[in-house]
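Cross-check.
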Amino acid sequence: MEKTLEPTITPRLAARRRPPNFPHLIRTITSIDHLKQLHAQLIKQSYLNHHLTSPPFVSSLLSLSLSTSSLHYCLSFFISSPEPSRLLTSALRLAKPQITLLAYSKFRCSCLELDQFCLSVVLQAIGKDKTGIGNFNLVSEAHGFGIKMGFDLDPFVQTAMIGSYAAVKRVSDARKVFDRMLNRDLVAWTVMMDSYCRTGNYNETIHLFEEMKISGLPPDRFNLSIVLSACTRSGNLSLGEALHSYIIESDLSHDVHLQNSLITMYSSCGQMKKAEAIYNNSMSPKNLVAATSMISGYAKLGQIETAHRIFNDMPEKDLVSWSALISGYAESDRPDKALDIFKEMNLCGVWPDVVTMLALISACTKQGALDTAKWVHIYVKNHGLDKVLSIGNALIDMFAKCGSIADACNVFEQMPVKNIITWTSMITGFAMHGDGKSALALFDRMENENGIKPNDITFVSLLYACSHAGLVKEGQSLFESMARDYNIEPRHEHYGCMVDLYGRSKMFKEAVKLIETMPFRPNVVVWGSLLGACRIHGEVKLGELAAKRVLELDPDHDGAYVLLSNIYAKAGRSDDVRKVREKMKFRGLSKEKGYSWLELNGTVHAFLTGDNSHPRRTEIYEKLRDVVADVETIGYLPDAGCTLIDSNEEEKREAVLFHSEKLALTFGLIHSKRGDCVRISKNIRICEDCHLFVKLVSKVYRREVVLRDRTRFHHFRDGICSCGDFW
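Predicted model, tokenized:
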């Protein structure tokens, strides 16, 4: 008998006979044609029909159909399914928010019926959408549709409606929906509280929480976390402490989210001992959120070294924690360290976002080093952040405060979008550099070309520009136009600028009259402006009155004592200078020490008056003596009246020659050549003697000198200052 041979099945043939892996094929759909082919295969084989209702298939169908104008095909699929609403709800829940909203707008015009569950998903998508599709009109339309279909009393729809109204900043409409709810569960209360908190209505958040407690519903960890956030942002420490006690009593103290919220609340309110107690005693392991809150809290209190220690102890660091440390150093007047931390962050492979860059720009602004500012600008452009509005505004301010109004203008002109902050920042830049006419011209351009209306801060900058450029008529006109043309009532700051404008222009009668006719009581700003003008022009009696008024409002105002002693010194009244100094000593006050600094090859060199700490001090003082000798040949005589030390004239003369800006300028001369620009920053106002000295140096040594003091910039060139000796 002949033996029948069985066919040999090779592995390759066996592989060909395996059924298709439909779940894998569904997950790898890339086009609508691909999806239709797969759809046809699934229909032919009825035992595979369950794949047609699988979430991945329905989600792919929805997104591909809407993106390729195959809406009819998509509608046919849902209409022919046994439970179209349930299937559509499932698909919308899985889809991206913008796809869900686009599908809703398309399907509303079709014969496909939508139920309350589908509507709830659509409303939730509005709250999640970040693209701008979910606007007020869409929320309003969805609300109207819900009313028409009788879904408006469904608690799920109502709760979703509250969240969607809040997402489009219509929290009052959200509250109306909430108030109409017949049965409010804990979720509804929580969503309404979150709506208030997210829109900055922190007191309303707290009030609603109290209402919920009165209604008999006990708080849970979710709404407790929201209310703690409201306490953090509103500074309501007492309620935060009460909530902490409730959390302990309710045995919720080990909840990580609540621990984070409590640490953030205590840190924000400056209660670092309480924050540290939770952080060290209750939290294990410690997480990024809590550690970052601790860093920010200590930094705000000026304890930056403690903040840095916590940062170093973190096993993992994210962008937020790096940003908190950078911001902490910037706010602690340690801009050089902030820049070092930023560079270290880059070396660790962590790249900045907008918040980080704003902290870095702030640090660079405080440092005042133009070379570093230009490096930051290049970094911003290389990382595609130069088109961000807030960063553009910060760059304008940075360049203006680092002494380059030209770079500030370039950033301004290249910004594709400008808001009132942009224009005001540029106006302020011109004002700081004493270019009042350019500030006024830009204001006219802002109104005429762009139709942007000024705010109260814009007028502070404009009046400041006028006061530092002697533009009295222009300043008067702007001040009068505030209430008349823009419905902006002048505040203390505006009156202070006008008093400063009149005082600098030696129009003291007008300054006093304005103070006497103010609609509210003059404050330290107003009287201080008058006192500063009296120091400039040597008005002793009026200066005494202004100083008296300042000290009545603030008995420990060291600046008032210093300005008054300057007035007496200028008038040669040494006994009165001594009496003022004795009063300061009795009250434990001292004059703020002046120091100056400049950047050289990426290193910042700082100098105090009579400084002997610099490693090249011998060379600096030898060069300074040569410089003094050179400028004396064209008329320089040291003004001993610019120093308040209690000594003889020769000692005063020596003291004024060793002022910090003179040392910084001398160091700059050593490291520059004719035609170069020397950039110096000073923490207090430059004195008259140093102002004259720098003018003469710029002429003799053919240098441009840009000096930034507490209030403005001085550009010295060929013996002339941009302020016109009006500062």
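The two ends are 123 Å apart (CA to CA). Strands lie at 595-600, 603-608, 677-682, 704-708, 713-717, 720-721. Passed to J.P. for a second look.
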